[in-house]
Amino acid sequence: MIQHLLSASDLDATAATLILDTATEMAAMADRDVKKLPTLRGRTVVNLFYEDSTRTRISFEAAAKRLSADVINFSAKGSSVSKGESLKDTALTLQAMGADAVVIRHPASGAPHRLATWIAGSVLNAGDGTHEHPTQALLDAYTLRSRLGEIAGRHVVIVGDVLHSRVARSNVVLLDTLGAKVTLVAPPTLVPVGAGAWPADVSFDLDRVLPDADAVMMLRVQKERMGEAYFPSAREYSRRYGLDGPRMRRLPGHAIVMHPGPMNRGMEITPEVADSARSTIVEQVANGVAVRMAVLYHLLGSVK
Ligand code: NCD
């Protein structure tokens, strides 16, 4: 197994499938009275978060604790030191403390890659800028597999703010690795330059692609990363790219609705859809713990 998980492209189909299979075993443990395994006893996992997070941070913490690791949470928000320097100094400190794994979320794309050159343990990318979020893609793949049975040959439609979405980037890569077909739907201003070279189709017409989807993944409109107007108004955005009840009913009966969270309810998704039987949003969060346990298990198992 690999030492670091920096990008979804670090995983080939065999490695990704192994992680998903292990996650299935980890999930079965959540039903037991004692939810702990001794696997990582004596190992230290540091959560290094330079950017806000609810689900991902709590999920990594729960995953590490269920494997009996010691967990140190380091919230770096508010640091006034220049980014590159503070990251390196912090890395050297973590190294001196003997961290076996560092889970990092950082606003700068590529920060986890730099960190991996400075420390001896494993680095896990928990979201870097607009670049990648590989464990989110793994938990989404896990959710797809548990709901649809098979990922290969399935059609996943990813909708919304693709430009700023590390979730979309990692999902496109992993879904391609696992043999799914992906269509990106977004306003032209929110399609990244170069998306034409990704292993995905691009469409501007949500209503047209929905009847052919096995899963639709709604993305949060990332207002905090938008310096200027990317669309005329929130109302106009919702009308064309939001998922509401009538639009959801265009999906085939078996199709699921996903969202990585946090949601802008009423913007990219209506409460009717988010709270519907097709929605896997809460399930995705639960699956995140099992998937991150599987990732920690395999990555830390490979470094002694
Ligand atoms: C995503 C993230 O932070 O990249 N959320 C998450 O990890 N569950 C998506 C988002 O912020 O929109």
Describe the structure.
The longest helix has 21 residues, at 281-301. The protein has a 5-stranded parallel sheet with strand order 7-6-5-8-9, with helices on one face. Strands 2-1-3-4 form a 4-stranded parallel sheet, with helices on both faces. It has 304 residues and is an alpha/beta fold. It starts with 12 loop residues before the first helix and ends with a helix. It has 2 domains: 8-133 and 285-300, Aspartate/ornithine carbamoyltransferase (Rossmann fold, 3-Layer(aba) Sandwich), CATH 3.40.50; 134-280, Aspartate/ornithine carbamoyltransferase (Rossmann fold, 3-Layer(aba) Sandwich), CATH 3.40.50. It is globular. Helix 4 (111-118) links the parallel strand 3 (101-106) and strand 4. It has helices at residues 13-29, 55-66, 83-96, 111-118, 134-148, 166-177, 206-209, 234-241, 245-248, 271-274, 281-301, and strands at 44-49, 70-75, 101-106, 122-128, 155-159, 181-185, 201-203, 215-218, 256-258. The protein contains 11 helices and 9 strands. The model has no long low-confidence stretch (mean pLDDT 93). Helix 5 crosses helix 11. The structure holds N-carbamoyl-L-aspartate (NCD). N-carbamoyl-L-aspartate binds next to helix 2 and helix 6. It comes from Virgisporangium ochraceum. L-aspartate binds at residues 83, 166, 220. Catalyzes the condensation of carbamoyl phosphate and aspartate to form carbamoyl aspartate and inorganic phosphate, the committed step in the de novo pyrimidine nucleotide biosynthesis pathway. It catalyses: carbamoyl phosphate + L-aspartate = N-carbamoyl-L-aspartate + phosphate + H(+). Residues 153-299 form the Aspartate/ornithine carbamoyltransferase Asp/Orn-binding domain.
